[in-house]
Amino acid sequence: MSKHTPFYGIHKSLGAKIVEFAGYEMPIQYTGIIDEHTAVRKSVGVFDVSHMGEFFVRGKDALEFLQKTTINNAAKLKPYEIQYSAMCYEDGGLIDDLLVYRLENEFMLVVNASNLQKDFDWLQSHKFGDVEIENASDRTAMLAVQGPKSLETIQQLTPEDLSKIKYYNFRQNAFAEMQMIISRTGYTGEPGFELYFNADEAQAKKIWDSIFEAGKKFDIMPVGLGARDTLRLEMGYCLYGNDIDKSTQPLEAGLGWITKLDKNDFIGKNAITAAKKEGLKRKLVGFVLQDKALARHGYEILYDKKVIGKVTSGTYAPSLQKGIGMGYVETEYSNTGTEIFISIRDREFPASIVPLPFYKKS
Amino acid sequence: MNFPDNLKYTTEHEWIRVEGKFGWIGITDYAQSELGDVVFVEIPAAGAKIEKDKSFGTIEAVKAVSDLYAPVTGEIVEVNAEVKDHPEIVNKDPYGNGWMVKITMSNPTEANALLDVQAYKTLIGQ
User: Fold this and answer.
1) Residues A330, A116: Cα–Cα separation, whole Å
2) For residue B91, what is the nearest residue in chain A, using CA coordinates?
3) CATH code 2.60.40.1730 for A281-362
4) Using CB atoms, which residue from A34, A292, A293 is nearest to B62?
5) From residue A244, how far is each of A96, A233, A286 by CA, in Å?
6) Are B62 and A292 within 8 A, CB to CB?
């Protein structure tokens, strides 16, 4: 039996196309992926991302526990700051990528819906000292409001001065008369906010309606998982299950910037350090197709007729009007400008390796 | 959703409009709706032969790719250049400006065996 977020009734009433994702029935699109994508790039869009997992980590040893189980340096976080991080197995393979929120007396971890139970079980099994982990996913709803008009839209609904919240910072304040976490984060590359609040259907409707009323003059649109994927891929952001998984390590995935090998022992550190010393055998790169063609997950990447890797994510980039993708290739072919080929239905289509992100704001 | 009754339909969600020995082929409203935003259409040029029930082209939407199957056997005499340059018209007007190819049919009676509008609607549960 599929789960529903508190916004499910709204999605149905809006005529969204619904798909099953991570055990939830979620909207993949309302009017169309390209329209929704464009709304977020040019104005403002709202995503129901209540399927995401939220854990609270409490206790005297909470920080030390997170230092052991996450690869970024959680000790750098001051209250109301957020950090992008990841969890790895001993062999350096990725368990999940996540956000770590430092509240006054506890931490909140935001994890991928598809990994929720796996993450929770793994964290539980590595607990030590005075640590309590609460899985708050079912009682927590989440909306992302993203786009250049996001601040103007939601500023009308909260006494908090949103312009003062820096990127990767958050506040706890009233919003549409409900107490919530207002976080300056997102998965789109646009300015935007993510809101966390109690998963109560009546309240959720009130929040949704308030945001859409406030955004009316900006032609605010609901945005489904389809455009969430095209928006994140235009930014070169990794998606767990596609671009990263237990068979990939953070450094080859381009996540060296969150892998703090100079901090004290964390799970996976030895394997990642050893891989670095040996030299990376492959790297995650971005490519743009030259012709009218689209790469998809699993397609082969070739150089001079030789398979050098596989596509991990591929789509049409509405902002570039071209096919783009990411994939791991052998390190010697990973330089920007390298001309590669993508095997699409037994034909080879030329592509160029480009720096990420694909989309840069003009 | 709209399904004109002057067309014949395939179980793979193409339509064909028959006029004498000519046929115009496209995809149905249901197909475009299931695919979502169409971004590229790949079809062979005029002169190419197409064979009933065989794939003769592909339609790339943002989320998915789909084969284009020939409703009947014949030869392409014209490709709609508009769908190559502005593939979004397949979503907007699947039976009109969104047609894909015009063909000459090898056997004009072949189309009679295809689904009529009622049978097609039943197929897709409408």
Assistant:
1) 31
2) A32
3) no
4) A34
5) 8, 13, 14
6) no
pLDDT at residue A362 tops 80: no
B residues 62-121 lying closer than 8 A (beta carbon) to A: 62-63, 65, 88, 91
Distance from CA of A234 to the nearest CA of B (A): 13
Of B37, B40, B62, the CB nearest to A293: B40
In SS3 terms, B35-66 reads as: HCCEEEEECCCCCCEECCCCEEEEEEECCCEE
**Nearest neighbour of A226 by CB, restricted to B63, B88, B91:** B63
Mean pLDDT, chain B, rounded, equals 96
Verify whether the Cβ–Cβ distance A293 to B39 is below 8 Å: no
**Which chain B residues contact residue A29 at CB under 8 A?**
36
Residues in chain A: 362
For the stretch A122-151, pLDDT in tens is 999 999 999 999 999 999 999 999 999 999
**pLDDT 10s digits, A1-45:** 799 999 999 999 999 999 999 999 999 999 999 999 999 999 999
Mean pLDDT of A46-64: 98
Whether residue A19 lies within 8 A of chain B, CB to CB, comes out as: no
CATH topology of domain A8-49+140-233: Gyrase A; domain 2 (3.30.1360)
> Do the beta carbons of residue B104 and residue B93 sit within 8 Å?
no
The CATH topology of domain B11-108 is: OB fold (Dihydrolipoamide Acetyltransferase, E2P) (2.40.50)
* Helix count and strand count (H, E) for chain A: 8, 19
Q: pLDDT band at A230, cuts 50/70/90?
A: very high
DSSP-assigned beta bridge partners for residue A37:
none
Distance, in Å, from the CA atom of A55 to the CA atom of A327, rounded to the nearest integer, reads 31
Spatial neighbors of B85 by CB under 8 A, at least 6 apart, are none
Asked if A263 and A67 touch (Cβ cutoff 8 Å), the reply is yes
Level-2 CATH architecture, domain A53-135: 2-Layer Sandwich (3.30)
Interchain CB distance below 8 Å, A33 and B42: no
Q: How many CB pairs under 8 A join A and B?
A: 39
The residue to which tokens 């259907």 are assigned? A201
CATH 3.30.70.1400: which residues of chain A?
Answer: 53-135
User: Whole-prediction pTM value?
Assistant: 0.95
Among chain A residues, the shortest Cα distance to B61 is held by: A316
- Report residue A139: phi and psi, to 5°: -100, 5
Give me the interface pTM, i.e. the ipTM. Answer: 0.88
Residues 6+ apart with CB under 8 A from A56: A106, A107, A108, A109, A133, A134, A136
Among B30, B58, B62, the strongest candidate for a mutation testing the A interface, having the largest count of A CBs within 10 A, is B62
